[in-house]
Design a protein that fits this description.
The chain has about 300 residues and is of the alpha/beta class. The protein contains 10 helices and 14 strands. The strands form 3 sheets. The chain has a 6-stranded mixed sheet with strand order 6-7-8-3-9-10, with helices on both faces. A 4-stranded antiparallel sheet has the order 2-1-4-5. A 4-stranded antiparallel sheet has the order 12-13-11-14, covered by helices on one side. The structure holds adenosine-5'-diphosphate (ADP).
Amino acid sequence: MSKALSISGLHKTYGNGVQAVKGIDLDIEEGDFFALLGANGAGKSTTINIICSLTNKSEGEIKIFDHDLVSDMELAKAKIGLVPQEFNFNIFEPIREIIINQGGYYGIPRDVCTERANDLLKALGLWDKRHEQARNLSGGMKRRLMIARALVHNPRLLILDEPTAGVDIEIRRSMWEFIKKINAAGTTIILTTHYLEEAEKLCRNIAIIDKGEIIEHTSMKELLSRLDTETIVMNTKDPVKKLPVSEDFVVSKVDETTLEVTMHQSRSLNVIFHHFSKHNIRVSSIQNRSNRLEQLFMKLVDNNKNKGDTT
Ligand code: ADP
């Protein structure tokens, strides 16, 4: 299978000195439904804007279906459809015209664009509104218009930058049904989001970006499997000199009298108590830590922060 996107050594420093992207390497397979997850300011939009030639990179190489974004720009760009965060169409233009005119930028004949626009308007539930000016659409409809416009030239890679911000649940659901359908038909999808739940439900693979660096790149399944473990914080009566080692759980020291113990959820706490008592560790209190994806995300970001502190 070919790669939809290949990024190597990508750097971006803005004119004001902000290093928004610091050496990103990322490969996304054709047909993937991929999440680029990160907190606000992590570098998601900068990365997407570089891929879509809206911002210049400082360093690095990008290939879209093997077309180099610099030396083979036209072909590379024709393969990408972008749904940006902000509505950026002419609000006084009828919506079918907006879609058709976008096709013109890619040199597609008007009759071909019209047919394609008709199909997209129907598929996205906007057919009845086709002659309306964009300003008369609801927020959810405007979002769907953005998707239709991004797809008019039949891109093989669709990038959605925070697509559900401000979209209500019902519209969100139907929007995702549509996106899932085109993914099943072969279009590669990249979704940037800070909604973990959305990424969890939809995406097969995931990269987490923090302060311009990829700190995790794995399958959603693998990431979620880590949630089968539970972390418990234990306070001990006396300072712990030597950490107990066990095959059943992993212990790390927070401070002299605080331990973090991670074990599979199916295991009983008694296993820990039994082992601790053998090592003369007396527990004074325990706190259960929840095991949501959110926590895993925070932990990954925290680890990255600590790494940054020591270097
Ligand atoms: P995200 O999309 O993950 O919220 P961005 O890529 O927008 O993150 O921003 C990454 C960093 O780059 C932030 O510190 C942001 O303030 C900075 N930044 C983004 N755009 C610009 C710009 N045009 N000029 C200067 N700094 C920018």
